[in-house]
Design a protein that fits this description.
Elements lengths: L11 H7 L20 H15 L4 H30 L9 H60 L11 H11 L11
């Protein structure tokens, strides 16, 4: 005897409908929005966070989008907790309450982790910029000191009583090797 077994939906509409069969609360779903939620409301949340944090690069944009997603899911978990409590018997917690509470706290933590990571990334970028500026300033100051030493040696000659000091010509040659663009234009060699 041959039994006809279902091979599942074949049309795109059927596949889309069957993909929602096990959807209970959507908190573990790969989709952010579930039926009944307003896409414009989520877009407004996302746009508000993007406007507030103004991400500079892809990594920052991903972190801000994660913040929007986790805030949205936390709010969904809180809404579903309220709905479950509203239909529960007085004095009793619904069976799904602990699961919904876990999803709420998980998404709260994920939101704050993304926020903390974004803030740390920005702080590191400021520190890196300061370090780069400090390094450039130190190089420029050292270059200026080298030029001044070379000019002084050229103008005044070697210091009396100091042996082993390079000649003025040697000082100028060394300075030009290090940074030829920093010498005054009116200096003749």
């Amino acid at each position: 005897m041959t039994q006809n077994k279902s091979t599942g939906p074949r049309t795109a509409a059927g596949k889309a409908a069957s993909s929602q069969n096990a959807l209970r609360h959507g908190l573990a779903s790969s989709t952010i929005l579930i039926p009944g939620e307003d896409p414009e409301e989520f877009a407004a949340l996302q746009d508000g966070l993007l406007a507030q944090y103004q991400p500079d690069d892809l990594t920052e944009k991903i972190l801000v989008n994660d913040m929007a997603k986790h805030h949205w899911l936390k709010d969904r978990a809180m809404r579903l907790q309220g709905e479950a409590l509203a239909i529960a018997q007085p004095g009793e917690l619904p069976l799904t309450f602990s699961v919904l509470l876990r999803y709420q706290t998980t998404n709260e933590r994920a939101f704050h982790k993304a926020l903390t990571t974004l803030q740390a990334l920005r702080k590191q970028q400021v520190t890196d910029t300061k370090q780069q500026n400090k390094f450039v300033s130190q190089q420029k100051k050292q270059s200026e000191n080298d030029i001044n030493s070379a000019i002084n040696a050229y103008i005044y000659g070697p210091l009396p009583g100091v042996s082993g000091q390079p000649s003025a010509e040697e000082m100028m040659r060394l300075t030009l090797q290090n940074d030829p663009g920093e010498l005054p234009e009116d200096l003749e060699l």
